[in-house]
Amino acid sequence: MIHPQAVVDPRAEIGADVDIGPFTVIGPEVVIGNKTWIGPHAVIQGPTRIGQNNKIFQFASLGEVPQDLKFGGERTVLEIGDRNVFREFCTVHRGTAGGGGVTRIGNDNLFMAYVHIAHDCRIADHTVFANCASLAGHVEIGNYAVLGGFTGIHQFCRVGDHCMTGAATVAVQDIPPYVLAAGNGARPYGINVTGLRRRGFSTEGIHMLKRAYKILYKSGLRLEEAIAQIEELVPEHPELDVLACFLKVEGRGIIR
């Protein structure tokens, strides 16, 4: 299943039923799991570990050195899970020593054309990155997050579970779970109701998330006071615990 015009380093480890297209280059210390499909003209450098049943389209570049002037050639890694799709011209870079040494991508994610994932990012599961969405270094993306086309996320920011951003959103602070965000800089525009319904959230659960949103953004409370009120609701509405835990992590602050 390896095209004769592909270049595969003998130190790479290729699993069963892997398909590698012509003119693709697989470097040393690359591990590719079973049933992964790699199109023509892709470049994968190591150390990189790729799981099973991934699809990597033409001209994608995975595992290249980070675009960080502090990077001095130290050994760092890119880790990719299972069933991810990387469309044309996606770029994903390895980590840096200062960021823990690992860029990590989970399972079942879709990265549309021209998406960029910088060094030391952490991406969970079931996310969608529309065309040209880009992450700076050290960004964390939660489960089921959807980034609209041309979205840009500033370094060290977090995007919570079930968030969605509009096209051309620029976020320089954290986006809390369940929130719709848009604009440059990003502002909150309510709860991602459509996405939550598609994922099976109950009407009551969505109602409580709307209530928590109002506490956070409409009540005039300080952040610490809003967190305290949201935590009071958690015992009866556990979906709010994801939001409360996210808000308690100190970072760049949340979008307002």
Task: Explain this structure.
This protein has 256 residues and is α/β, with parallel strands linked by helices. It folds into 2 domains: 7-192, 3 Solenoid (UDP N-Acetylglucosamine Acyltransferase, domain 1); 196-248, Udp N-acetylglucosamine O-acyltransferase, C-terminal domain (Udp N-acetylglucosamine O-acyltransferase, Domain 2). It has 4 helices and 27 strands. The protein has helices at 193-198, 203-217, 223-233, 239-248, and strands spanning 7-8, 13-14, 19-20, 25-26, 30-32, 37-38, 43-44, 48-50, 55-56, 61-64, 77-80, 85-86, 91-93, 102-105, 110-111, 116-117, 122-123, 128-129, 134-135, 140-141, 146-147, 152-153, 158-159, 164-165, 170-171, 179-182, 187-191. Helix 3 runs antiparallel to helix 4. The radius of gyration is 20 Å and the shape is elongated. The mean pLDDT is 97.
- How is the main sheet built? 10 strands, mixed
- CATH level 1 class label of the largest domain: Mainly Beta
Give the percentage of residues in beta strands. 25-35%
Number of helices: 4
Termini Cα gap? 51 Å
Quaternary organisation: single chain
Number of domains: 2
- Under CATH, the homologous superfamily of the largest domain reads Hexapeptide repeat proteins
Layout: helices, strands, pairs:
Elements: E1 7-8, E2 13-14, E3 19-20, E4 25-26, E5 30-32, E6 37-38, E7 43-44, E8 48-50, E9 55-56, E10 61-64, E11 77-80, E12 85-86, E13 91-93, E14 102-105, E15 110-111, E16 116-117, E17 122-123, E18 128-129, E19 134-135, E20 140-141, E21 146-147, E22 152-153, E23 158-159, E24 164-165, E25 170-171, E26 179-182, E27 187-191, H1 193-198, H2 203-217, H3 223-233, H4 239-248
Parallel strand pairs: 1-4, 2-5, 3-6, 4-7, 5-8, 6-9, 7-10, 8-11, 9-12, 10-13, 11-14, 12-15, 13-16, 14-17, 15-18, 16-19, 17-20, 18-21, 19-22, 20-23, 21-24, 22-25, 24-26
Antiparallel strand pairs: 26-27
Helix pairs in contact: 3-4
